[in-house]
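Escalated from tier 1: zinc ion holo job.
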Amino acid sequence: MKTNILKVFIFLFISVISVNLYSQKPKEKSMFEKYNLKQVSSEKVGREKRDRETNVIRAKYNEYYVNRKYSSPDSIAISYLKDKHSEFDLSENITEVRVAKTSKSLGGKYIYFEQNLFDVPVYSSNCIVALNNGDTVTYVLNNLRNIKKYNLQKTKPRISSNEAFYLTLSYFGINDKVVRNPKSKLVYFESEDNGLELAWKINIIAMEPLGDWLVIVNAENERIIHVEDIALYHNGSGMIYNPNPITTAQTTYGGNYVDNNDANNTALQNERIQVTLRDITLDNGFYKLEGPYCILDDLETPSDNFPELTNQNGFNYARNQQEFEAVMVYYHIDLASRRIESLGYNIPELRTFSADPHGLNGDDNSHYMPSQNYVAFGEGGVDDAEDADIIWHEYGHAIQQNIGIGNMSYSGETKSVQEGSSDYWAVSYSRSVSSYNWGFFANWDGHNPFWDGRRADLNWVYPTDYVSGHNGGQIWSSALMDIWGDLGRDITDRLFLETHFLWGQSPSMEDAAEAFIQADIQLYGGYHLCSIIQHFRAHGLTNRELTVSVSNRTITADETISGCDVNVSNVTIQNNSKVKIDAGDNVNINGTFEVKVGSELEIK
Ligand SMILES: [Zn+2]
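Tier 2 regenerated the structure:
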């Protein structure tokens, strides 16, 4: 039982912590968006549209204009606008517009004019004159802006495009290393709040905040006028195993549920489920498995042909097709990466992460390549990428190398810590999908004649049961899954991620446990220590005491007393000492407990 006073302390501490967690979350994209382009309003009058403010023609849907003096479509369109200049509120020689583009379709020819002021284009200001195949002007759209009213004088930009670029970066709070393809152009921009302004139009692609950003920066007073994400996002869909056919069929390896040289059968076909493939890329009319979190890349042999489809919902393959693993890898890496962000961690190196669904010369193994930061999956036995556990496991290695100090050594106990951590990351996910045989790591790729697989539900104790390498990591993954059973997935995953920052390059098994304890102290004020310490003790990973007794003592110097339960009896604190009791569960006070004037006692 906890005393009431203790609960109040803990509650206060946790509310402070949760504020910190929120601040680690990415800012909402909408926080950056600022739409400030002046809107042009028009109304339809018969077969025309007119500007509500100026009565200028905005569209002509049924025009009929022939000019046989000219034969080129451009010249005909130009003569049309000159003849009708007053209807469009243009000067007689239409010097404020110029032909920006001409295109031709089966149905006709289209001349696109753009508006200019002092040879600088006016942003979002254009006029389209359409000719039919008989060179008659039949249709006109006029989106030119009414800028005469501003009576602007010609000026030069006071800041350079480069300065505008850096103003943009500081607006987003990012540096130039995390943006791709910056572009800039001088424009006149008509803003809703301030009229026509000479400005730099900056385009950058950023990963955080994710978007294809258009930013308009005033070229004189440096004001950020307008910010808009112009990216077009597409979701697709496809068929995958989640996490694997053995788990969803609630069976074990055998019968119809065997690899059989990657052959398909009805039973295995039926275990596929349909999922959304988020933010895939549309490139030249083809949907590709390329998104903000995962990019399929043919980095190793055997070579791959990745699906490129005209139908974004057509990623539906059977397990015997190579494309099936490509969809599996895209889906699960995208999900694992978004999982990290949803827990409040932003790791730029884990975005646009490369993965090769078929590598290692087809071997029965998979790997993460630290120097190039990618993962690849083998095909021996069951194709590795047919089992979500393997994908999440390899991605777990990417987490290890990219969170915290990185460059971790891959030897001794550190290797077991890494392998056990990757197993935990996989099993934590698959247990959240299904509790069926959740303790098995790699239910489909392993636990079969090809490979024994591993477990994350063993009662092995360190150091007695410890073996080096992958298998020793089962002590670590099993301890973490025991904690998961008490605290649930979200808290345990968050503590797990935080732990990586506290490892250094070569943690032992016990170092890893200490780091996990420290993570709970930092994130939750030690609120879960009783459960954590209890399970680590059961696996021999810590010798921290669950119960600490302080009795018949006079404390005369600063001291922190920490434990799961703290028993205090006949204690006096004096000499201006500061004493902190850091108890995970209970503080039990029996007999006298005195704090002399000048000394302090803090109970957490
Ligand atoms: Zn591994």
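The chain has five domains: 42-150, 155-229, 232-403, 408-542, 547-603.
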